[in-house]
Amino acid sequence: MLKYVALIACSLWLAACKGPPLQEMSDARQAIAAARAAGAADRSPDNLKAAQAAIARAEADLQQQHFTRARMAAQEAKRSAAAALASSQATAVTTPVSSH
After folding, report:
1. From CA 79, how far away is CA 73, in angstroms rounded?
2. pLDDT digits (tens, 9 = 90+) for 78-88
3. What confidence tier does 51 reach under pLDDT thresholds 50, 70, 90?
4. Would you give the distance in Å from CA 94 to the centre of its chain?
5. What is the C-alpha separation between 52 and 41, in angstroms, rounded?
6. Which helix (H) or strand (E) holds 72?
7. Which residue of 32, 68, 79, 80 sits 20 to 30 Å from the alpha carbon of 87, by its own alpha carbon?
8. Is the dihedral of CA 32, 36, 40, 42 positive or negative?
9. Which residue has better confidence, 88 or 3?
């Protein structure tokens, strides 16, 4: 009985991985947009560039229907964008605003 439950769970997991990673792509794009809005282009350019490169790879993989690679690249883009956002927010807190 336990073998059948494990087999069914594994089958469902594999079925979920086969389709295009639409949610992961959307999450990554939103994370990149949030990082940009927080000033990551100036405050964390390396992380933002890494996120943009990863989402570009994800989009190329998605077009070629390499869904597993696209999913992994989208997740990488989201992580890099989150790092850019965090770095931007930390820099904004520690950098005084100049009033000219």
Report:
1. 10
2. 999 999 999 99
3. very high
4. 26
5. 11
6. helix 67-94
7. 68
8. positive
9. 88
Six-digit token pair at 10?
A: 């594994």
Residue type, position 8, single letter: I
CA angle 27, 28, 34 (to 5 degrees): 90
The DSSP string of 14-55 is HHHHHS--HHHHHHHHHHHHHHHHTTHHHH-HHHHHHHHHHH
Task: Render the burial of 67-83: b for 16+ CB within 10 Å, e for the rest.
Answer: bebbbbbbbbbbbbbbb
**Pairwise CA distance, residues 6 & 92, whole Å:** 48
Q: 10-49: per-residue pLDDT in tens? A: 665 665 557 999 999 999 999 999 999 999 999 999 999 9
Report the interhelical angle of 22-37 vs 67-94 (nearest 10°).
20
Q: Are 62 and 20 in contact (CB under 8 A)?
A: yes
